[in-house]
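Lab notebook, bench 4. We co-purified these components, and the gel suggests they stay together. Before we commit to crystallization screens, I want a quick structural picture of the whole thing.
Request: model the full complex, all chains together.
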Amino acid sequence: MENLRSMETAIVLSVTGLRKQYGGVLAVDDVSFEVRRKEIVGLLGPNGAGKTTTISMILGVLEPTAGGIRIEGSDLATNRSHALERTNFAAAYTPLPGNLTVAQNLRIFGLLYGVRNLAERIDTLLRQFDLEGFRDVKCGALSSGEQTRVSLAKAMLNAPNLLLLDEPTASLDPATARDIRARIREFAAEGHTGVLWTSHNMYEVEEVCDRVLFLSHGKILLAGDPRQLPSDYGKDNLEELFITVAREPLTLEQA
Amino acid sequence: MTFHRIAAIVLRQYYLLRGSPARVVPMFAWVAIDMVLWGFLTRYLNSVAASGFNFVPALLGAVLLWDFFIRVMQGVTTAFFEEVWSRNFLNFFATPLALPEYVAGLVLTSIATSALGLVAMLLLATTIFGLNFLTYGVLLVPFLLVLFLFGIALGVTATAIVLRFGPAAEWFIWPIPALISPFAGVLYPLATLPVWMQAVSRLLPPAYVFESLRAILAGRPVSIAVLAASGALAAVDILLAGWFFAHIYRHAVRTGLIARYSAETLS
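Here is the predicted assembly.
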């Protein structure tokens, strides 16, 4: 009983029977999974598999057709603000407003998330993400890699218990990407955060994720340890497995 | 409603205004142009009118109040357009920010920007053209209140329209005050209008303000009950606008429009 209770408190995200239908198109079909504290879960799949749709539903900006989302036990549908208070995200396709400076953007989002000791928190994040020199630079004037670092700093503002990262290193050079990966892994390991991470870089996924979920046509096709899964399905590496998921998902469903 | 989240919306607008003459100058320029143009026109009319009727409080005062209403409405819509132009909806609405908090932030921004415009107009109209607001007495307060409430209602409705139809729908919004002004009877009595236009006017709270303003200047009694009813009508308009905005927002969340706003429609 005690074990069951501690397992339940370790769950930061619980997705049950999630479904999203646009007219006759089923974008996400009966998806269920959990993310626990200190765990990094990779949400993988080819373009159009339903990854971003799933993340949008978890962020509360897209209403599911069916199913439920609970963040730290709070039902997103009925207790949205509370559920999102300790959630945050960074995505390659949503840079922060380019017409404000880095510090101004962080201050505004810090207020939105109700961050305490905000000035101090901003200083810490600017230092952690090597952004001190850009404090008073407008975000629109930054390179795409610098903008990504600002988005990640924003994503860490409220020390989230659930962190959603949609291709967070897509526009970073390999050295910066490695630093960022290390920082996020450290953040997840030392704190209380569960991370849901999408990426098309299978090397990155193997390095970072504790567990992966392969989505195909809106369904979870495979789930497991990214270092173990390829051999389970007779593939040399995760990239080969990804290509099979993208091109011949039926062969895996039958396996 | 949480104060710090409302403050975040206002702070964003403050940062944008503080660093941008392109945003600050129009707040004063358009109202100043109107005051100067109508100020000289009323001065000319006073000089040629045989009756001795003072056009300054009747025309310049009415234009000032109408410009205040436009500033209130555009205070809401422009603050909203800033998020449209910077494609910031997903960032904002993926936070704990609740819809009433967002709208409250827009309204507070509008109060600040419209108040600045009002002060600029008052300075010009009183110092250069001799407009005396004591002419209207204490009724100036309900006049401003009714116009403010209706400006907010129209601003919130306009933002809902843009949220529903996408960034290009912004061009529906700018002409709305010009579209309403003939019905509001800003410059002439409602009796001048054809019957069907008068029927529309009765639905517009500003129409009662401008009728009351002319009644004061003509020395006729002003019906406080009618003015109070126009205030109530404006308050109902705000509730309807809030409901409409919430309805459109729910539609945008259901269809995915918030997440892919630049697509304009996903239907």
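The two ends of chain B are 32 Å apart (CA to CA). Worth comparing against the SEC data before the next meeting. Chain B has a mean pLDDT of 92.
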